[in-house]
Amino acid sequence: MTSAPLFNWLDTRFAGVLLHPTSLPGDQGVGTLDANAFAFLDFLAAAGFKAWQICPLGPTGFGDSPYACFSAFAGNPYLIDLDALVSAGLLKSASVQPLRNGDQSRVSFGRLFEQKWPALFEAHRTFVAGGRTNQPYGDFARFRTDHAEWLKPYALYSALKGHFKGQPWWDWPSEVRSFAAATKSPLATQLAATIEAYEFVQYVFSGQWTRLRERATELGISIIGDIPIFTALDSADTWSHPHLFQLDRNGRPLAVAGCPPDYFSEDGQLWGNPLYDWDAHAKEDYAWWLARLRAQFSLCDIVRIDHFRGFEAYWSIPADAPTARPGHWVKGPGLDFFEAIKHAMPEAKLIAEDLGVLTQGVLDLRDSTGLPGMAVLQFAFGGGADNFYLPHNHRANCVVYPGTHDNDTTLGWYASTDEKTRDHVRRYFRIDGREIGWDLIRSAYASVCNLAIVPLQDLMSLGTEARFNLPGTSSDRNWSWRYRADQLEELRRNSATYLRDLAALYGREGLPKLSPPES
Fold first, then answer.
1. Residue 505 counted as domain residue
2. Which helix (H) or strand (E) holds 218?
3. DSSP class of residue 466?
4. DSSP string covering 375-418
5. Which residues of 401-432 are buried (b: 16+ CB within 10 A; e: fewer)?
6. Least enclosed by CB within 10 Å: which of 22, 117, 314, 394?
7. What pLDDT digit, counting tens, does each position of 462-493 carry?
8. First vs last Cα of the chain: how many Å apart?
9. Nearest-10 Cα torsion for 23, 137, 216, 119
10. 142-167 burial string, b = 16+ CB within 10 Å, else e?
């Protein structure tokens, strides 16, 4: 007899929008948790959307990817609204001015690093000078205590990284090359003010994000977060828990993560992340992963787990390989890992990013967990009628997208794909292709998949210039796209009623329960 799936939460039809907060408009060089974020929530409500999907919220490192962060727990300081700190009396308006002078149409992460961190540290100095009494986001000491498990290593790691001019932790002196040793080092005392500054920045991020999420809940909008399966090699996580990763005694990886040749790259993708020592995680009952998930559910209502197939088997690449081609598959933790989640968080709402090479083992694991997978319409055409991503093959327990953050916009994809694929699209939907963006949006709404997520770029009918990421590249255009406030207003004026009608027509007016799972 087949046992019941572990999770079974996606039983309501609804729709949402994919947009990372860095893409919000504004005059601080990057999207922030300011009035523009609240305006975006108002648009979602006006257009009948019930979900906002984002990319990971962590502090980005080299390459600026939200999928390669300095911490799997911390929030991205770049998202902090500095004007709110000015209003709170913790920052001078002049300190924000340098960020207003640059290009506001794209994020310049280099400028942010140079100009935003000084403003954040200034706010902390003002906070200290005032006797730590000006606490706009609740009790700071309580925040430090509640989040100490991840906050202490993150703050110490960040302070040490700054002290050593950005060098990776494995190149630091031996007395601080591990968290346990560093806490006893004189440097921990010497850098105490800087350590607290990093804790304060996380306090501010948490407070601002909490207010935004509260507004989303008021509007009936669930936030769908995202967890990368892997962590960055140079991160607080590997530094403080090296025994949980496949590292040598010097902190260098024995093998690294990636994926084999696929749709995106003929050489595969060499991500370079350290691989987990899953035996070590299992011996600790997956405590680190459970803490990570609890942290995410404190920020979001639903969490997408990136690269789900890596839990069944992961692509292990020799650490010195120039591409991902020499890798091989190694078995992952499988159902045992998800059973641990179910035991600890029985009401957890997870989405499995099940794209890529899907063996029968991966499909069996997904179905055993009961987690909804993903269907991407841009992957559906140009082949036969058995393509899973074609709408007639969709399943209810699934999330359908025209494209994701890794795809071109629908207009860009249609313009650049071959004529065979375009002809297939036109014949399948009985369309002429002149409004291909809206054609795929309508198809997503009509799909049997219970959840439909549409990139904002497609709603705005934008081309390749608005693509968010091109996998396997390190272009400075990756992760940097932003929209203008007038573009959202135009979309709301011209399309909100139509989108509400689509939601009613295809029964996408439901909403899952928004409370986070019990710990």
1. no
2. helix 192-218
3. G
4. EEGGGSSSS-TT-TTSGGG--SSEEEES--TTSPPHHHHHHHS-
5. bbbbbbbbbbbbbbeebeeebbebbbebbebe
6. 117
7. 999 999 999 878 888 999 999 999 999 999 99
8. 31
9. -10
10. ebbeebeebbbbbbbbbbbbeeeeee
Q: How far is CA 114 from CA 118, 120, 175, 478, in A?
A: 7, 11, 29, 19
Nearest to 57 by CA among 218, 257, 292: 292
The answer to the question of residue 187 being in a domain is yes
| Dist CA 356 CA 260 (whole Å) | 9
Are the C-beta atoms of 102 and 29 separated by less than 8 Å? yes
The predicted pLDDT at position 454 comes to 98
Rounded CA Rg of the chain: 23
What is the average pLDDT across 249-266?
87
Question: Residue 110: CA atoms inside 13 Å, Cβ hemisphere, count?
Answer: 3
Model confidence pLDDT, tens digit, residues 96-116:
999 998 889 999 999 999 999
Catalytic residues: 306, 353, 406
**Phi, psi values for residue 404, rounded to 5°:** -110, -170
In a domain, 192, yes or no: yes
Structural domain count of the chain? 1
What is d(CA 354, CA 339) in angstroms, rounded to the nearest whole number?
18
DSSP 230-286: S--SSSHHHHH-GGGB-B-TTS-BSEEEEE-S-SS-TT-EEEEEEPB-HHHHHHTTT
Residues in the chain: 519
- Residue 125 belongs to what domain range? 74-207
pLDDT single digits (tens) 141-160 = 999 999 999 999 999 999 99
Phi, psi of 296 (to 5 degrees): -65, -40
